[in-house]
Amino acid sequence: MSEHTHSHSNHSSHSSHSSSHHSSSSHRSSSSKRSKRRRSSDVKAYRKTRYFVAYLLFITLTVMSLGITAKAVPLNKNNVADVYVNYDYVSALYDDISTRAHELCKRNAVPVSAVDDVLTFEAVNDIDRAYILGTMSLDEQYSQTVYLDKIDDLAKDIAQSVNNTVKERGLKFATGQEKTADDFAKAITRYITGRITVSYLEKLQTIVNIGGTAATVATVISAVLTVALALIVITLGSEVYRNLRSICHAVSASALSCFIISGAYAYIKGTKSLYLFPTYLNDSIMRYLDSSADAVVITGTVLLVLSFVLMALVWKLKSDALDT
User: Fold this and answer.
1) Omega of the bond leading into 278 within 30 degrees of 0 (cis)
2) Contact, 299 vs 291, CB < 8 A?
3) CA 149 to CA 139: how far, in whole Å?
């Protein structure tokens, strides 16, 4: 009876110990599964947050890049003014004015030399710059008053040159035609005024000013947000290379956006034509648009190079993480 009781007691103790061990193992296993699920849930949450913040980073980075590009090239007042004062434009403008002056010379029986000696490329260029740069307030030596004074001075010089030519050749004006030289000179300067003046220049200047201000504000705001979002992405989770890779994707997407914009311009340019008169104005505006598109391509290239640098850094950090 004693042995039986002792044996039963040992068996009960062993069963209790086994049950306790099994219960402890089950508890640890359950706890481990819950911990894994929690970690997996955290990883997924970090991943979703990282993707969303990286998308916002792509938007702000693109706005910042295009804002800087717009302010530097298409919305730069000097570049806009250059449409009307660049050498190719002024050369074509001078040829146009000179051709018209020669026609007036033939019509009025005035020697061409009387005009060519005064109506030079330098004179036309100076008047053109006085009007454009003066109206856009880009050069202190030029203003609307200076432009008008230069036109008046040119008219006087042409009239004086015609009068001198008449005297040198021993000719005389017919009675009642004494003012022929003045009228002839004014006919030329009226044509010059019609070709040089731009009716929408002041409105264009207003648009450039407003656009430039908007680009500056957008650039500053997006730059601040870009830095903030990049810092947020970097701090999400413990794997830095994954966070940096998300930033790399955002930069690559911004570069792609720039290339898409320039590609859209190239497509529109290839399928549609801009027709403005005179043709040299049309050509000058197209050069301005082309330079603006080129600036967007350069911006995209810079972003693409930056993405390659980040990609190389991601690869290095990932290799170091796997080695450890």
Assistant:
1) yes
2) no
3) 16
Segments in the chain forming alpha helices (H): 2-72, 77-85, 87-107, 113-116, 121-135, 144-168, 180-196, 201-235, 240-271, 279-323
d(C-alpha 89, C-alpha 100), whole Å: 17
- As a whole number of angstroms, the distance between CA 42 and CA 35 comes to 10
**What pLDDT digit, counting tens, does each position of 153-184 carry?**
999 999 999 888 878 877 665 555 557 889 99
Q: Look at the block and give the residue holding tokens 């980040």.
A: 310
Structure tokens at 186: 């004014």
In eight-state DSSP terms, residue 119 is: S
Distance, CA of 243 to CA of 231 (rounded, Å): 10
Per-residue model confidence as pLDDT tens digits over 112-153: 999 999 999 999 999 999 999 999 999 999 988 899 999 999
Residues 72 and 291: beta-carbon distance below 8 Å: no
Distance CA 101, CA 105 (A): 6
Residues 6+ apart with CB under 8 A from 281: 89
CB–CB of 96/280 below 8 Å?
Answer: yes
DSSP label of 73? T
What is d(CA 114, CA 136) in angstroms, rounded to the nearest whole number?
34
Portion of the chain with pLDDT greater than 90, in percent = 66
Question: CB neighbours (10 Å) of residue 230?
Answer: 21
Residues 181, 126, 116, 201: is their CA dihedral positive or negative? negative
Q: How far apart are the first and last CA of the chain?
A: 65
Task: Give the separation between CA 82 and CA 291, rounded to whole angstroms.
Answer: 12
Q: What is the DSSP string of 175-208?
A: TT-TTHHHHHHHHHHHHHHHHH--TTHHHHHHHH
